[in-house]
Design a protein that fits this description.
The protein is mainly α. It has one domain. Helices cover 77% and strands 0% of the residues. The chain has four helices and no strands. It has helices spanning 2-27, 35-39, 43-74, 84-90. The protein is elongated and about 50 Å long. The two termini are 24 Å apart.
């Protein structure tokens, strides 16, 4: 059962990664992003930056709260009722 959850989480992570790649390729012309460029963004570019931040945050949360825990669980490492920080301190 755990491997099914892990596969599901990895599939979700891949969706976020693919969307991040798409957004980054569209915003490539903005980098390096300066204050002047930022102040001249159109609404589409602002939406793309919002999407970038949102997807990155979702991916980061998914890795920390689900994938990492499920991976440790698969290795029979006790993660129940422990915060992410507690787990990192023990490893």
């Amino acid at each position: 059962m755990a491997i099914d959850r892990l596969s599901s989480y990895l599939k979700e992570a891949n969706t976020h990664i693919e969307r991040l790649k798409d957004v980054l390729s569209r915003l490539n012309k903005l980098y390096p992003l300066t204050v002047e460029k930022f102040n001249n963004l159109n609404s589409y570019e602002k939406d793309m930056l919002d999407t970038l931040a949102f997807r990155f945050a979702k991916l980061q949360d998914l890795i920390g709260s689900k994938i990492f825990r499920e991976f440790l669980n698969k290795l029979f490492y006790p993660v129940e009722d422990k915060s992410f920080l507690e787990i990192l301190k023990e490893i």
